[in-house]
Amino acid sequence: MILGSDGLPFISLKYSTSTLAALKCGNDSCTSGNVWSTLNTSSTGSDVNAIIGGNGYPFMTHKYNSNSSLMTTACLNSSCASATVVTTLSMVVNGTVVSTPFYLMSATTTTHVDPCGTTGCANTGSYSAAALGADSYPLIVDQNTSGTNTMSVRKCANLTCTSMSSQTTISYGSNNIGTYNAIAIPTDNKPLLATIDDTNSYIYTIKCGNSTCTSGNSAVAQTSTGAIATGGISLALTADSTGQMLPLIGYKVASVAGLKLFRCGDAACSATGTNTIISV
């Protein structure tokens, strides 16, 4: 759930046969005036993540299960009830990057383009997260499970993400990463990414060297977090006791029945941080 530019809740979810759907609340408690929309056909609603896009309307990333690819849905109004721009982002097919197909969808018609055919696609689109850069275009991170699990970072070339300006892969040796991802973009416009290292059960952070994470990245295995359990990860930039804006990561741990918070020691998460356990 996110708050729209009008301050009212917007909820995106997987509905029925993995269909992407949305509920726009008519008031702050969602008790009346709600607008329900079914946004896509079946097998398109897994791993949904939503932000407010650069046009002021909801923007969602989600997985298209039928060909294991990342999809985006950009709303063209606050409720997503009318036409939306839906994009299946570039993917790897037998080692070759397939050009970006996309289609426009109204409330009644859809046209689907499947570039994979029967040759198969790299397994992308899981655990996606997105944030807006200084240009108001989304930056998206998701998991690629073709071989060793890695992270794909994609920069949209426009507000509705009908094309990409860059795509890069982030790996951590032979370790499996990218299971649950989070992203925050500070004032220097160099994103900070957080994910889970499944091989060693630690949080893995990446401070990007530029606005698209294509070079100069600095990665740290946050071993002081201790063994973690799968179940999600979140990242926010919040002020510490001195007023400095530092990353705060929320996650679930294997040994504690509650939420655990990790406060990075500096803005890039390169210094030793501190852990706080919050029981819920």
The radius of gyration over CA amounts to: 19 Å
- Globular, elongated, flat, extended or rod-shaped: what is the shape? globular
Structural class computed from helices and strand pairing:
mainly beta
Binned strand content: over 45%
Note the main sheet. Answer: 5 strands, antiparallel
Query: Helical region count?
Result: 0
Poorly predicted sequence stretches spanning 5 or more consecutive residues: 91-121
How many DSSP E strands? 23
Q: How far apart are the first and last residues' alpha carbons, in Å?
A: 20 Å
Question: What is the helix content?
Answer: under 10%
Please list the strands of the largest sheet in the order they lie side by side: 5-6-7-8-11
Integer average pLDDT: 78
Listing every helix as H and every strand as E from the N terminus to the C terminus, the arrangement reads: EEEEEEEEEEEEEEEEEEEEEEE
Key features of this structure:
280 residues; mainly beta; five-stranded antiparallel sheet; four-stranded antiparallel sheet; 0% helix; globular
Structure description:
By secondary structure, the chain is an all-beta fold. Helices cover 0% and strands 48% of the residues. The strands form six sheets. A five-stranded antiparallel beta sheet has the order 5-6-7-8-11, with no helix packed on it. The radius of gyration is 19 Å and the shape is globular. The chain starts with a strand and ends with a strand.
